[in-house]
Amino acid sequence: MNNAMYKYTLEKKSTKHICPNCGKKRFVRYIDSETDEYLASQVGRCDREMSCGYHFPPKLYFEGRKEHYSPIIDNNADYYKLEKEMSVHTVDDLNKTLSNYSENNFIQFLNRKFDASQIDKMLEDYKVGTATNWHNSTIFWQIDQDQKIRGGKIINYSHSGKRTKYINWVHAIQLKNKKIESFQLNQCLFGLNLIEKYQKTIAIVESEKTACVMSLFFDKYLWLATGSLKGLTYKKIQILKDRKIILYPDLGVPGEITSPFEQWNLKCKEFREKGFDIELSDLLERKATDFHRKEGYDLADYFLETQNTKPKKIICTHQQKFLDLYMKNRKLKTLIDVFDLHDENGNKINFL
Ligand SMILES: [Zn+2]
Q: Fewer CB atoms inside 10 A, N or C side of the chain?
């Protein structure tokens, strides 16, 4: 089986950007095929080949930044080699980011939704930081099962908790500031540092934000994140082979050929054939409205939105106690909806 593929490819979607050379909206950008993230905005090719011809390939970009460039990903052969070449951050790099939460839009957003004690525990577990040198954006540290700090992904959020398009990495800033000379990023699942601490069923989502938020809503599972749709790879999850795993894909945009659900469904089958105890949740897929799909909702978006909706009517009188509980804890309704909870007699709990 040949697992080799290009690390960086021109984006396949029809999205066109403004060309940095001719200014026309005919520019196709390069994406990282493992993370689905764009390279810098000037890295790409103008499709006005005759009249413009601008092409700035990833190779030149990385050479210019004196960063390691490996054009081919070989999922089989390079694994152990990569492990050896892997760079890590120091504990000091990490610790000095674990503050300034009052300036961190994502944490402030959570503060308006959850109790401070819950948030403190989440921050302590996942080691979420603040990039004081980069717009006080949120740092999601990728720390592995051996507590090695493999990377710090920086995402900028608005006051309302929505992510902006701005993404950076701690090592990229350190390289730019000449604090380090090179860095070999080798990503792991976000939250992997917790797998020994919590012997729970593992729930995997796409975004780091969703993992953090879901850990606040539903701590029966240990929530991990792949960081991107394509980030669900054998290399990343092989460490979880003896664990029970449930995948929670994001919702797809209508008209898109392969939805996140279908892509993760294929992965799920592949991993099951390799002996993993893994399943794919279709709960969000079943609960979603067209609006949710259009907005590309994830589990956290869904929960945050339905957190404050009241049930109109409770079906049976014996479910009165759930209403009482619900009034105390509004999250209960969404937990019941999304996870298909049952009462102590095995009856499905329903709200109308
Ligand atoms: Zn152009």
A: N
